[in-house]
Write a structure and sequence with these properties.
Elements (H helix, E strand, L loop, with lengths): L2 E5 L9 E5 L5 H16 L8 H20 L4 H8 L3 H10 L6
Antiparallel strand pairs: 1-2
Helix pairs in contact: 2-3, 3-4
């Protein structure tokens, strides 16, 4: 399937690019939606609560790990890629036990 990189016109202020499949779908959004559907289906009728916190924690940790690795440990570059300040990134890395790794 062909992919394209397009301007995200809905993004505020800064210039943002998104990867869009030929069928118009966003692969990252689809991956998240699929994971949530699987999670909810596997709950098998059990009550779901605090899902927002769970999703944020499950997404943030690998997001930070991947971006810091991609930036070869350069926290200034990683913070810029994430749209965060360096101090905010360092705090979040500490929160997840990732600081100094």
């Amino acid at each position: 399937m062909t992919t394209a990189i397009k301007d995200d016109e809905s993004a505020p202020a800064a210039h943002h690019l998104r990867v869009i499949q030929a069928d118009g779908t966003d692969p990252l959004a689809k991956c998240v939606a699929d994971a949530l559907e699987t999670y909810l289906r596997n709950m098998d009728g059990h009550a779901v609560s605090d899902l927002y916190r769970l999703v944020i924690e499950e997404v943030e940790r690998p997001l930070f790990e991947t971006i810091v690795r991609h930036a070869n440990g350069n926290l200034t570059q990683a913070a810029r890629m994430l749209g965060l300040t360096r101090s905010t990134l360092r705090k979040r890395l500490t929160d997840y036990g990732l600081a100094g790794r």
